[in-house]
Amino acid sequence: MKQQEDILPILEIKNLKKTFGDNAVLNGFNMKLFKGENLVVMGKSGSGKSVMIKCLVGLMRADSGNIKIMNQDITLLRKTDLDLLRTHIGFLFQGSALYDSMTVRENLEFPLRRHKKKLHLNESSEALVREALRNVGLEHTMDLMPSELSGGMQRRVALARALILKPKIILYDEPTTGLDPITSKEIIQLMRHIQKTYDTSSLIITHDVDCARVISNRMILLVDGINYVEGTFAELSNSKDPKVQAFFKT
Ligand SMILES: Nc1ncnc2c1ncn2[C@@H]1O[C@H](COP(=O)(O)OP(=O)(O)OP(=O)(O)O)[C@@H](O)[C@H]1O
Ligand SMILES: [Mg+2]
């Protein structure tokens, strides 16, 4: 039984379709995320990566297709059940999307206020906020405003906020975009540290080849609205297919 559980995907997308007017963005996209893995989805700018991740968390409605998270079909869930399911998913938005008018502490308390009871987290909010900030090395910024932090620090705070409910799945939308190479490396190391510490399953959307190389156990390329090809970084970067090669040329 345990074995079967390990093989079942924790998240599965089947035949996802989404069109805006005559812009067919997703044309039958398929994806499985298995427990404990770091899956990277790479695609060109405008290929539909953010649309896919927004459909996943229910911020956008797909035209058709199935999305199963922890064995539940999210299109069939009632709002209360969907809300509960969402508490198991941490989402790092493209950019950092911190609330500008709230301190770091208040930004982190925000998801706690809504969901802490449901999740039976026993620690105090203060302790959870401290723990999450400690994980990203920023405990000392607790009472600062986001505008007082550098871009890299803001990204780390956003990551701390995504972690605070101790999610089983973390979705990262372009975690390194807009950061300098050294700060990008720090964020990638942090993502690896978090994955090891909490045994989370991660879906990482990126067009950063370095990020993909360091973090991925497996990759999917999103091309023409479908999961065009999948494999390890080594397999894909050695592919002879020009559409695949295009991603790895520098
Ligand atoms: N709400 C919307 N209404 C209309 N079109 C949209 C909407 N959201 C996205 N699109 C279109 O869908 C396509 C894919 O957008 P998406 O944001 O998913 O790209 P992306 O792969 O995340 O790109 P990037 O790497 O630049 O973040 C684009 O052509 C975009 O214009
Ligand atoms: Mg995007």
TrEMBL record:
Name listed for the protein in its UniProt record: ATP-binding cassette domain-containing protein
Keyword Nucleotide-binding: yes
Segments forming domain ABC transporter: 11-249
MF terms in GO: ATP binding; ATP hydrolysis activity
Family matches, as Pfam families: ABC_tran
Organism: Christiangramia crocea
Source taxon at top rank: Bacteria
InterPro entries: AAA+_ATPase, ABC_transporter-like_ATP-bd, ABC_transporter-like_CS, P-loop_NTPase
Protein keywords: ATP-binding, Nucleotide-binding, Transport
